[in-house]
Amino acid sequence: MKKLLYVVFFVVFIVIFLYVNNHWLVVSKHVFESEKVPASFDGLRIVQVSDLHDARFGDDQQKLIAKVQATNPDYIFITGDVIDSNRYDLQQSLQAVRGLVDITDVYYVLGNHEVATNKVSEIYEALSSLGVHILANESTVLKRDGERLAIVGIEDPLMGTSTEDMLDIATANLPDDMFKLLLAHRPEMFRTYVKDGIDLVFSGHAHGGQIRIPGLGGLIAPGQGLFPKYTAGVYEENTTKMVVSRGLGNSSVPYRMFNLPEIIVMDLKKK
């Protein structure tokens, strides 16, 4: 009888552990401080949402939407994999987006899963109809009090164009010294972003390493293999910083461990 109770306790513990690890939304806050931040954009708040896949956070994604709204963002960046190619359900994925566009302007770039569906045009059309700003190897310039910064977005290299070429296309009309924010799904291309002189990159894709080993980091990530380098948090090289979201959902591997779903908040600060 005692052994049976231990087994039941263990099973219940595992169920609760897995549920919490895959449904407990956390907000990670960061500050990007630089002399290059235009003074009129000092205090700008960006919220990043990434790798939703088919995860659900409350009815009609209300828990996720409320969590984002509570951060009071100026802009929301979606950095790919808003859908899952293995369980493609565009209308379900759009539930979250519908709520996010009611909060503020939303900018979006493709992830590899959107490309894998072979329905990129359908996804673009659906997102655009909701008012999402799609950045398909292009940039947009924000203006405040005579100062400017650029939001740049590139597609996933599965579209058939190299990251280097996509960046060249997206930034072709921007001055070299303009402050640039980049939405790019793949963190493993960090050295390319550094080479291009991007100031701040928002990325995802790695799912935090799926299983995080306390004190060591992520276990495995697509495009990086075992013990990947870029899985979560902020990375810096030269004058470029990259924030990697642990994301929200899962794909081929169904569970996260020691790896809570994450919303990123990034505040810009003039140094």
Q: What would your notes on this structure say?
A:
With 271 residues, the protein is of the alpha/beta class. It has one domain (2-270): Metallo-dependent phosphatases (Purple Acid Phosphatase, chain A, domain 2, 4-Layer Sandwich). Helix content is 27%, strand content 28%. It is built from seven helices and 16 strands. The chain has a six-stranded mixed sheet, covered by helices on one side. Strands 6-7-8-9-15-14 form a six-stranded mixed sheet. The N and C termini lie far apart (65 Å). Keywords: Hydrolase, Membrane, Metal-binding, Transmembrane, Transmembrane helix. One of its GO terms (molecular function) is metal ion binding. Pfam families: Metallophos. Residues 44-208 form the Calcineurin-like phosphoesterase domain.
CATH class: Alpha Beta
Going by helix content, strand content and strand pairing, the class is: alpha/beta
Q: What's the CATH superfamily, by name?
A: Metallo-dependent phosphatases
Oligomer: single chain
Q: Major beta sheet, specifics? A: 6 strands, mixed
CATH architecture: 4-Layer Sandwich
In total, how many domains does the architecture comprise?
1
Summarize the helix and strand pattern as letters: HEEHEHEHHEEEHEHEEEEEEEE
User: Kindly, what is the distance between the CA atoms of the first and last residues, rounded to a whole number of angstroms?
Assistant: 65 Å
Could you give the order of strands across the largest sheet? 1-16-2-3-4-5
What is the global morphology? globular
Return the average pLDDT rounded to an integer: 95
Low-pLDDT residue intervals, each spanning 5 or more residues:
none
